């Protein structure tokens, strides 16, 4: 094999390798290409996900506000209960003093 035949054989081998690579790329690209309908579906899914995240954020904000309101109501109710219990305690003490005074005056 002389030098010219070697160069031609090498060129043919490189050209065949190039053609096989290009064909493999074309086949892979053909099967993995995303169609327009798939892209539309992906865009719709992305939009739905975005809307769901916004809804979730709004729900979390609402729950936090509601929790704060309920905590305030609970604190107010506990304060009212404490005041009512204190008033009841004072009324019982006063009633006991009146009973003692009445018994003392009825006896004497």
What does this molecule look like?
By secondary structure, the protein is mainly α. Helices cover 94% and strands 0% of the residues. The longest helix is centred in the middle third of the chain and has 72 residues, at 36-107. The protein starts with a helix and ends with a helix.
Report the helical percentage: over 70%
Structural class computed from helices and strand pairing: mainly alpha
The biggest sheet amounts to: none
* Beta-strand content estimate: under 5%
Spans of at least 5 consecutive residues whose pLDDT stays below 50 are none
Number of strands: 0
* Number of helices, where a helix is a run of at least 4 consecutive DSSP H or I residues: 2
Rg, alpha carbons = 45 Å
The overall average pLDDT, rounded, is 92
Q: Ends: how far apart? A: 147 Å
What multimeric state do the chains show? single chain
Shape: rod-shaped
Order of helices and strands: HH
Keywords:
108 residues, mainly alpha, rod-shaped, single chain
Outline the fold blueprint.
Blueprint: H1 3-32, H2 36-107
Write a short abstract of this structure.
With 108 residues, the chain is mainly α.
């Amino acid at each position: 094999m002389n030098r010219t035949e070697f160069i031609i054989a090498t060129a043919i081998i490189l050209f065949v390798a190039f053609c096989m690579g290009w064909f493999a790329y074309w086949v892979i690209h053909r099967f993995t290409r995303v169609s327009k309908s798939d892209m539309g579906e992906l865009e719709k899914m992305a939009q739905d996900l975005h809307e769901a995240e916004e809804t979730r954020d709004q729900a979390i904000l609402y729950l936090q506000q509601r929790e704060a309101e309920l905590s305030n109501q609970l604190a107010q109710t506990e304060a009212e209960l404490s005041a009512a219990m204190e008033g009841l305690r004072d009324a019982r003490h006063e009633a006991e003093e009146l009973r003692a005074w009445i018994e003392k005056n009825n006896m004497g």
